[in-house]
């Protein structure tokens, strides 16, 4: 059995009265590409945010690379980690947002080198040449000195992917990376992600692009009302869903 | 162009005409009225009991020049102190820690709630409350010696300014999209580093116009330090007219200098604005 890079054990999250995640458990192996699908409000974003600790869980645990995230057990009790420790844990994950969230006052290249230089304290020259290599990978060598406002949505999202990769994460989280894009720009971002998947990166992707899920994902997870309803190989979940709710969702989307 | 001709059937052909300039009678009238008024005021000043030769003579007098230098030195240092305090207090106010939050709110409440001139007098006379100040066992001094007019004015003006600037800074930081904090966190930044590298530089774009305003206010507020014997511009002018009784002439001298300094500050602010607008428009490089 392959080692689990991510192990999620019955995590729950409520916002006020509203339960956004109910006892979610999920494993992701190293090198696996997992797509999360589900209706709006089903908790997909919340799940990714919990993994990246942008949202703290109420109960349950998430282990990344064998390390418990966000809390520490001592004397039979759980203690929250300090902000600094959480920031250190976050270095193992990269996150790509629906709305790109590039730093508007920095060029594409500076967006990418910001983390390596400022956070990891890497050599500036070395970080720059690595960033140029990443820009080449996402097909934007010519845009190194452009500001985000001078880039199209698809180009911004590709820079955002490069920015996340520059931290050399072991897990990449994508939250609907193409849903803020014009239809003709979706393909360029998906092909960058596909290339990344083929290079062996472990990825968790929230997406409505079922074509991408079918072609690239190893596994697909369908969520509804904060819980995982069905998960399995992508051809099974997308091609022959077992659950009625999954079937209903898929027929509504296609 | 057969399409255009078909559409134009039955309509006058406007393609060769240009739009005539509108006569702006009311604007001309208003401008004329303003000019007449200004001329009348100017005449009144020219014929009034003002010895203009004194104005031109004292405009560049040594004491006045020293006064304007002291004014600018105080304005720059007090504003720097105000901005430093303002940034710290704004960060405290936006922090999740309730203790920091209340300390920040209390500071703003206290120093915004009392007159500046009263605060200046309090700092200057602090020796009445604490005759000696210092760090126990390390260093101590008599408060009267430490609280020079310069230091009292700097503390009074700077700390008061900090209370106002913190609100400007807080507004600026709130104007930055929450996604920027999250993106900064996602690349492993802690709160302070995210603020310094990502949030504050973007907030600057928003806060520079109000800060420019505050700085102009500060240049003029330094004149209040004349009550605690700080030798700024107004204080110098007063000292001269106590001796020669040319009150109006010296007040005009001081007024001209304040106007000149403020006029120079406006283009400087434009330069700063352009610097921090980097990346926010297609052309603003
Ligand atoms: N910070 C928050 N405060 C209150 N409610 C929240 C918060 N974040 C999420 N929620 C609620 O939790 C539920 C799940 O949200 P989530 O964003 O995870 O859904 P999603 O599956 O990503 O949906 P979508 O496809 O629309 O992005 C939603 O009903 C949302 O309103
Ligand atoms: Mg979502």
UniProtKB/TrEMBL annotation, chain A:
Residues 6-250 form the ABC transporter domain. Keywords: ATP-binding, Nucleotide-binding, Transport. CDD domains: ABC_HisP_GlnQ. Signal peptide: none annotated. GO terms for molecular function: ABC-type amino acid transporter activity; ATP binding; ATP hydrolysis activity. InterPro entries: AAA+_ATPase (IPR003593), ABC_ATPase_HisP-typ (IPR030679), ABC_transporter-like_ATP-bd (IPR003439), ABC_transporter-like_CS (IPR017871), MetN_ABC_transporter-like (IPR050086), P-loop_NTPase (IPR027417). Pfam families: ABC_tran. The keyword Nucleotide-binding applies. Involved in beta-(1-->2)glucan export. Transmembrane domains (TMD) form a pore in the inner membrane and the ATP-binding domain (NBD) is responsible for energy generation. Belongs to the ABC transporter superfamily. This is Ectoine/hydroxyectoine ABC transporter ATP-binding protein EhuA.
Automatic annotation (TrEMBL), chain B:
It is found in: Cell inner membrane; Cell membrane. It holds the Pfam family BPD_transp_1. Residues 68-269 form the ABC transmembrane type-1 domain. It comes from the Bacteria. GO terms for cellular component: ATP-binding cassette (ABC) transporter complex. Keywords: Amino-acid transport, Cell membrane, Membrane, Transmembrane, Transmembrane helix, Transport. One of its GO terms (molecular function) is transmembrane transporter activity. It is a multi-pass membrane protein. The chain crosses the membrane at residues 28-46, 67-92, 116-139, 250-272. CDD domains: TM_PBP2 (cd06261). GO terms for biological process: amino acid transport. NCBIfam families: HEQRo_perm_3TM. The HisPMQJ complex is composed of two ATP-binding proteins (HisP), two transmembrane proteins (HisM and HisQ) and a solute-binding protein (HisJ). The HisPMQ-ArgT complex is composed of two ATP-binding proteins (HisP), two transmembrane proteins (HisM and HisQ) and a solute-binding protein (ArgT). Belongs to the binding-protein-dependent transport system permease family. HisMQ subfamily. Part of the ABC transporter complex GltIJKL involved in glutamate and aspartate uptake. Probably responsible for the translocation of the substrate across the membrane. This is Glutamate/aspartate import permease protein GltK. It comes from Bradyrhizobium retamae. The lineage of its organism: Bacteria, Pseudomonadati, Pseudomonadota, Alphaproteobacteria, Hyphomicrobiales.
């Amino acid at each position: 059995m392959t080692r689990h890079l991510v192990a999620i054990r019955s995590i729950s999250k409520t916002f006020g009265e509203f339960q956004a995640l109910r006892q979610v458990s999920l494993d992701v192996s190293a090198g696996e590409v997992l797509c999360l699908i589900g209706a709006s409000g089903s908790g997909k974003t919340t799940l990714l945010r919990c993994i990246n600790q942008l949202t703290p869980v109420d109960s349950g645990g998430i282990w990344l690379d064998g390390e418990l995230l966000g809390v520490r057990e001592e004397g039979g009790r759980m203690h929250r980690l300090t902000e600094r420790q959480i920031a250190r844990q976050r270095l193992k994950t990269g996150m790509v947002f629906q709305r790109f969230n590039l730093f508007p006052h920095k060029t594409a290249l500076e967006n990418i080198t910001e983390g390596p230089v400022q956070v990891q304290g890497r050599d500036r020259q070395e970080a720059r040449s690595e960033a140029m290599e990443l820009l080449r990978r996402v097909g934007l060598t010519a845009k190194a000195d452009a500001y985000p406002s001078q880039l199209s949505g698809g180009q911004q999202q590709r820079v955002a992917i490069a920015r996340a990769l520059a931290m050399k994460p072991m897990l990449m989280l994508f939250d609907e990376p193409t849903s803020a894009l014009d239809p003709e720009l979706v393909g360029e971002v998906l092909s960058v992600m596909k290339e990344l998947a083929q290079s062996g990166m472990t990825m968790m992707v929230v997406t409505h692009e079922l074509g991408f899920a079918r072609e690239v994902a190893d596994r697909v997870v369908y969520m509804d009302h904060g819980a995982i309803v069905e998960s399995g190989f992508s051809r099974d979940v997308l091609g022959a869903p077992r659950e009625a709710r999954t079937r209903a969702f898929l027929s509504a989307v296609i | 162009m057969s399409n255009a001709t078909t559409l134009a059937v039955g309509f006058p052909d406007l393609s060769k005409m240009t739009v005539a300039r509108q006569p702006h009678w009311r604007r001309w009238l208003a401008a004329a009225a303003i000019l007449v008024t200004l001329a009348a005021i100017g005449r009144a000043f020219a014929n009034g009991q003002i010895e203009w030769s004194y104005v031109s003579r004292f405009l560049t007098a040594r004491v006045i020049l020293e006064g304007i230098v002291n004014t600018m030195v105080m304005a720059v240092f007090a504003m720097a102190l105000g901005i430093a305090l303002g940034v710290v207090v704004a960060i405290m106010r936006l922090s999740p820690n309730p203790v920091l939050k209340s300390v920040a709110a209390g500071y703003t409440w206290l120093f915004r709630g009392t007159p500046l001139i009263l605060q200046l007098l309090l700092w200057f006379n602090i020796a009445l409350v604490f005759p000696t100040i210092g760090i126990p066992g390390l260093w101590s001094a008599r408060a009267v010696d430490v609280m020079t007019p310069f230091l009292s004015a700097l503390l009074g003006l700077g700390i008061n300014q900090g209370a106002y600037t913190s609100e400007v800074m807080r507004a600026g930081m709130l104007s930055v999209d929450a996604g920027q904090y999250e993106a900064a966190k996602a690349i492993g930044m802690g709160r302070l580093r995210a603020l310094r590298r990502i949030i504050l530089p973007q907030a600057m774009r928003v806060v520079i116009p109000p800060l420019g305003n505050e700085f102009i206010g500060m240049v003029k507020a330094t004149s209040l330090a004349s009550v605690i014997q700080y030798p700024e511009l107004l204080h110098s002018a007063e000292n001269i007219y106590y001796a020669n009784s040319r009150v109006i002439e010296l007040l005009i001298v001081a007024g001209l200098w304040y106007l000149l300094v403020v006029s120079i500050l406006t283009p400087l602010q434009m330069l700063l604005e352009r610097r921090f607008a980097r990346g926010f428009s297609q052309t603003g490089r």
